[in-house]
Write a structure and sequence with these properties.
The complex is a heterodimer of chains A (160) and B (141).
Chain A (H helix, E strand, L loop, with lengths): L1 E7 L5 H11 L3 E5 L7 H10 L5 E5 L1 H9 L8 E5 L2 H10 L5 E6 L6 E3 L2 E2 L2 H12 L3 E4 L8 E2 L1 H9 L1
Parallel strand pairs in A: 1-4, 1-5, 2-3, 2-4, 5-8
Antiparallel strand pairs in A: 6-7, 8-9
Chain B lengths: L1 E8 L2 H13 L7 E6 L5 H14 L5 E6 L5 H7 L7 E4 L4 H9 L6 H14 L4 H7 L7
Parallel strand pairs in B: 1-2, 1-3, 3-4
Classes of the chains: A alpha/beta (160), B alpha/beta (141).
Amino acid sequence: MIKALHLDDRLIHGQVAISWTRYLDANVLLVINDRIVEDKTRRMALKMAVPPAVKYGFRTVEEGIRFLNGSESQKYQIMALVDNPLDAARVCLEVPGISRLTIGGVRKNAPYIMDNLNLDAEDVKALLRVVNAGIAVGMLPTPSDKFVNLESLLRKAAQS
Amino acid sequence: MKRFLLASHGPLAGAMLESAALIVGKSLLASFSAIGVAMEDSTEKIHGEIERMFADFGEEDEIIALTDCCGGNITNILTEYVGIRNLHIVTGMNLGMVLEAGFSDGEASAEELAGRLRLMGQEGIRYVNAELDSGRMEDEI
């Protein structure tokens, strides 16, 4: 079953591999991304960041959603990772049982929302679809940080 | 309780603590201190600093020191306190070891923990190219 969905442009990295995996007691890190399934070197690099005794998987968005909704995934404690808001929204809206979307960071050449978070108009729209579905969206780079709910910032960004 | 002391030549130990805080947050590192010795520091001055630090710890505290390198001056000086204080020293500090120490619960003994930190440190050292060349993706689902 899915324990958490986390949006972070770095996918598997120190904060995820060390802090989140332990906090959630996750035994699978599932990277959901259309490009990475084609990129062996990137998959190998991310695999090296996976802690011992934790399994990992790489799926396209479509396959990832099917996997999370299927029976095989129910035996695992899964932390799912996406690297962009559009994929995050698809997973949130198509996989039942996700109560919140945490964000570690999205850094790119797009308007500043807050530190470590830049979003273009499409991204804002996608995350608002998540909020409107009753799923909280907030910054939370490590589980020991404070969850910063982004709803009002997203609504403001959508209006500008 | 357990106390962790990161020790290095120059700013490495302090910076290691800052970098660890980026990953796991400051609260997990509340029982950590850092000491960095400068080239011009006399042995007396270093002893003084260490003793001031130790004086802040409880008499019963277990102190686990991670030092920058085996054979380095700060390692040698700390070694003089083994037996005088309940001090355990592991050399070759790296970020993975510091994080592991941060996550340690109070249950393991200082000896067990020191052994685990040593292992963690060693396992964290890999030749990336060789692993990429191997192409192995074990544990993939």
